[in-house]
Amino acid sequence: MTPITEVEGRRIALSNLDKVLYPASGFTKGEVLHYYAVAAGSLLSHLYNRPVSFLRFPDGPDGQRFFAKNVPPGTPSWVRTAEVPRRAHEGTLRQVLVQDMASLMWSANLVTEYHTPQWQADRPGVADRLVLDLDPGPPATVVECCRVALWLRERLAADGLQSYAKTSGSKGLHLLAPIEPTPSEQVSAYAKELAVEAERDLAGLALHRMTRSLRPGKVFVDHSQNAAAKTTATPYTLRARPEPTVSAPVTWDEVAACAAPAELSFLAGDMPDRLARHGDLLAPLLNPNRAGPVPKPSG
């Protein structure tokens, strides 16, 4: 029998709680739900009012994975949704808004990674944050990503933008900066200029092009996730990796000191202590007073 629990007055069916989803560590679906409950205070702040795309992996990271933007079949009527534009000239679609603990637990029961755009549901295509995804090409690792991140931090600061870092939960690092509401097209163009400049100033280390043959040993500065149609792993989401890794905020001191990939790899079990010690390191992203204007691209 599927257990029913009540969360904030909503009845939610939680299924297969003993199912092992991460065989490398024996981490179960019940532990996934527990993690999301523990991280909810911070995670919900970054999900709020942003249409959610789900990467679902109901049989674990080695099983079938599928990315879903549309509202899943069987979504309860009390889960809030928003109609958002598709790509140009493709109409609209309806997506879930994870606004509270009840909708978080309902969606986490589907076994998901959470991915969100850089804009909010009431202002689609108008970004309030900039993101740069630093993706290392082997044998480069997150250590090399940290070197690029520190350069980008200073470059953004020169333009009046404060930046913050989190692990991708996979191999790389994400940089985020709160910005004044700006059309995604302008943010994308500025982010591309930053990536091109990083490649020029960090010759042999940074790369602004996705071309696979160019990437070994370098860090790809992916600027494309600023496009209105793109999404990025939400802070604190679990990832579909062999172990329950988290896209975890990190301090700039941790970035500067990183000498080995293991130093910036965090599991679900690490997060309660980190949250107790640091709080939400990405809270400044939620403060409009921290937002800076995005320079207009030079081109």
UniProtKB/TrEMBL annotation:
CDD domains: MtLigD_Pol_like. InterPro entries: LigD_pol_dom (IPR014145), MtLigD_Pol-like (IPR033649), NHEJ_LigD (IPR052171). Residues 28-281 form the DNA ligase D polymerase domain. It comes from the Bacteria. Pfam families: LigD_Prim-Pol. GO terms for molecular function: ligase activity. The keyword Electron transport does not apply. Gene3D superfamilies: DNA primase, PRIM domain (3.90.920.10). Keywords: Ligase. PANTHER family: BIFUNCTIONAL NON-HOMOLOGOUS END JOINING PROTEIN LIGD. NCBIfam families: ligD_pol. This is ATP-dependent DNA ligase. It comes from Streptomyces triticagri.
